[in-house]
Write a structure and sequence with these properties.
By secondary structure, the protein is mainly beta. It has one helix and seven strands. A hairpin with a 6-residue loop joins strand 2 (44-47) and strand 3 (54-64).
Length: 152
């Protein structure tokens, strides 16, 4: 087989180009996406883990022509955007919440409304509706062999 038939992936390299929703999997970081907000759910208050402040959180369904996913919005982001806005996210990440894939905006992430048009969003391929199983790291096969003491 010629070498050009294979794709080469570098492990641990951050993704700089635009990612499509269909290619999202759990535990990705530094994602750059252009997505359209389909709807924003009601906000609710949750206490901060770092201080005594109360934060607002809301879930928005977002997507592009390849699929859709739930995006978690915090505090000011809830008021910044509305349905049918097209946003550009830089530095996002994915997590699993009760087996459901979620897209998140981190502290170092940037989200801004842009004038680009996404005419149609594929809502039939909702990645958050699929159940993912997360294996805790303690139970994974990171260390498949038992450590044994040497007998002298």
């Amino acid at each position: 087989m010629p070498l050009q038939d294979f794709e080469v992936f570098k492990v641990g390299v951050t993704i700089e180009e635009q990612t499509k929703v269909v290619s999202l999997i759990p535990n990705l970081q530094n994602l750059n996406l252009t997505i359209k907000i389909l709807s924003i759910g009601p906000s609710r208050g949750i206490p901060s883990k770092r201080d005594t402040r109360q934060h607002l959180i809301a879930e928005a369904i977002v997507g592009d022509e390849t699929g859709s996913i739930i995006l978690t919005l915090w505090d000011d982001q809830i008021r910044m955007f509305k349905a049918n806005d097209v946003i550009e996210m830089k530095g996002g990440y994915t997590t699993l919440v009760k087996g459901s894939l979620r897209l998140n905006v981190g502290r170092g992430s940037r989200v801004a409304k842009i004038e680009k048009e996404i005419p149609e969003v594929n809502t039939k391929n909702n990645l958050s509706e699929k159940t993912h199983i997360q294996i805790p790291w303690e139970l994974s096969e990171a260390r498949p062999f038992r450590s044994r003491r040497r007998h002298r």
